[in-house]
Amino acid sequence: MAEVLFYHMTQSPLEVTLPMLLAKTRARGWRALVRGRDPAQVTALETRLWAQQHDATFLPLGPDGDQEDILLCSDQSAENNAEVAFLIDRTDIDVAEVQRRQRVCLLFDGNDETSLDHARAQWKTVTDQGVAAVYWAQGPTGWQEKMRRD
Question: To which CATH superfamily is domain 3-149 assigned?
């Protein structure tokens, strides 16, 4: 079973953090699925990601229904056989999905109390079910591992 990585963003917004993680995912030769709850937010995120593309860091993005290396979707059944799923916008973690992936990453805004509460509940859900989880917090000097449950 894969592990779940929690990314507590406080210094950089999603539009900065996600491309960095997607680039690392692509460097491993893995496909990625980015899933949110709100179709409008997913579309807006896709637009922002395309706008900041550079030749050196090109990310092959696709919307719902595409089979791109990086699929952005709000449809819970959308699939591109990704090794890594990135969950945004307080999307719940499905333990069955964790079993199909190398990693599932939950990205959340550490400056938003609702997002923090959701992430805490998701941590409890996955660790209570015996899923390995790692909690990464963003600080002034970068990402630091704060907690791990195997």
Answer: DNA polymerase III subunit chi (3.40.50.10110)
Question: CA-based angle 12:14:4, to the nearest 5?
Answer: 105
- With tokens 């980015």, the residue in question is 34
What are the structure tokens assigned to 104, written together? 């599932």
Domain boundaries, the chain: 3-149
Contact (CB, 8 A) for 75 and 94 = no
- Assess whether pLDDT exceeds 90 at residue 106: yes
Q: pTM of this prediction? A: 0.88
User: pLDDT category, 56, cuts 50, 70, 90?
Assistant: very low
